[in-house]
Amino acid sequence: MAETVGLLGCGVIGGGWAARFLLHGFDVRLYDPASDAEGLAGEVLENARRAYRRLTLAPLPAEGSLTVVASAEEAAAGVAFVQESAPEREELKRELLAAASRAAGPDVVIASSTSGLLPSHLQADMERPERFTVGHPFNPVYLLPLVEVCGGERTAPETLERAAALYRRLGMRPLVLRREVDAFVADRLLEALWREALWLVADDVATVAEVDDAIRFGAGLRWAVMGTFLTYRIAGGTAGMRHFMEQFGPALALPWTRLTDVPELTEELLDRLVAQSDEQAGGRSLRELERLRDDCLVSVMQALRTHDFGAGAVLAEHERALFAAAPDGSGAAADEAPLRLHTAVVAPEWIDYNGHAHESRYLQVFGDTTDALLRHIGLDLGGGSSYYTVETHLSHLGQARAEERLHTTTQLLGHDEKRLHVFHSLYRAGDEALLATAEQMLLHVDTRAERVAPAAPELLARVERIAAAHADLPRPDRAGRAIGTR
Where do the H-state alpha helices sit in 123-239? Predict the structure, then answer.
């Protein structure tokens, strides 16, 4: 049975939390006084689904359900966790958090998404304030891993640990602060940059697009990998950070910046910011800009994953957890003949110029089916061994269209201690039309030694059980086919 979380607020941040929880199998009870809260949450969820389809092939749990409720108390009653994401007004947040604390179970952690308000102030009116913490995420919440966890004067240490553990289950990287401070860590850094950026525009030194270019073509690329201090350590050469600080530290006293002053937000400055921002957007809608942002973030995170560094390391760790949490094939399901291990929905981005799923997507579905088979036989992908596909023969027999539901079956044709010979079939749900088949040969590999090796006895025992269940199945008509002419 899915765990349920209560969410208070469905703006940009609250909607992002809803999507992240739902995609990780949590049921969500959402309270927001806006009449269109469910529609807004649905739009954000669709963006999140699209991003995750690009981000990872790891198996997400079954998506949770969303229920919109009429009060903060109803959202908090009977749930396992509460996340508040109301507008950044202290009185409003205190009122909602107090209401949630009266309705939630006595041990339920209650978190606030505040970007800068002190947790000691926010927990002041709560019942059992020791179970309160800040859990400050970053937009888009469903994609960026960072969440700042910060307790107040009355927060119990185990509350921070419990909140951080839950956020890790969502694929996030908790940054637990040692003590509370206004705006925490990340927003204090962002505020300094934002203040200087506004002065550059106000003084007509640069346009908003030029300021953004200075970041995205320069330091921003480094920050995604190294952050600030590691970047400067490298800049110090072989002598490291001490040399860098000795060389460039004195410049910090020079009047280069205007960080101690704030530009007056006059109508003239606001008009300039709005006009330049509109020009920079180039006529793209909010959702178009969000999808562009998500696609680029996915690409960066996937690139970092290949180096197991930064946000890529968080992604890789979360993928390993998702694979480990997937069903391992024990029990009666292992005796199905043939196996039914994978389902999919044809995503709109799979469709090519002919209006059907591109041929590469058929291979993707069959690859996902093979991964499901490996999990089914109990393969530990982090345990030093795996099966590698060394040969595939595909037959395309029908067309799949956007939003159609698909499922696959798998028949074990043969095996020995080093090989698996499998036959997958792809069907459209509903009419059960056969759309494609794939025959594959897999070799078991010792991934540490990088060579073919016999599989472990316990793995072979699972394969033997499946082979016995499949022994009486007729050989598929298309098995053993090769391309040829008559």
Answer: 157-169, 186-202, 208-214, 220-226, 229-235
Predicted confidence band of residue 320 (pLDDT cuts 50, 70, 90): confident
What pLDDT was estimated at residue 335?
Answer: 59
- Provide the pLDDT for residue 387: 95
* Sign of torsion over alpha carbons 273, 294, 227, 139: positive
Question: Which pLDDT score is estimated for 332?
Answer: 42
Q: What is the largest CA-CA distance in the chain?
A: 83
Residue 348 sits in a domain whose CATH number is 3.10.129.10
Classify the phi-psi angles of 5: left when phi > 0, otherwise alpha if psi is within -120 to 50, otherwise beta. Answer: beta
> Last residue of a domain, which of 184, 218, 234?
184
The tokens of 143 are what? Answer: 């994609």
Please indicate, yes or no, if residue 485 is contained in any of the structural domains. no
* CATH value at residue 200: 1.10.1040.10
Paired with 406 in beta bridges are 344, 428
Which of these, 373, 351, 377, lies nearest to 362 by C-alpha position? 351
DSSP label at residue 33: S
Q: What is the extent of the structural domain holding 379?
A: 327-470
- pLDDT for 330: 46
CB 294 within 8 A of CB 50: yes
Q: What is the pLDDT of residue 334?
A: 53
Residue 143, pLDDT > 70, answer yes
pLDDT score at 384: 82
Q: Are residues 22 and 139 in the same domain?
A: yes
For residue 425, what are the CA distances in angstroms to 126, 394, 482? 56, 10, 17
Backbone angles phi, psi at 193, to 5 degrees: -65, -40
Nearest 5°: CA angle at 60, between 58 and 66? Answer: 160
Does the pLDDT value for residue 378 go beyond 90? no
Confidence of residue 331 (pLDDT cuts 50, 70, 90): very low
What DSSP string runs through 269-294?
HHHHHHHHHHHHHTT--HHHHHHHHH
Which DSSP helix (H) or strand (E) runs through 445?
A: strand 434-446
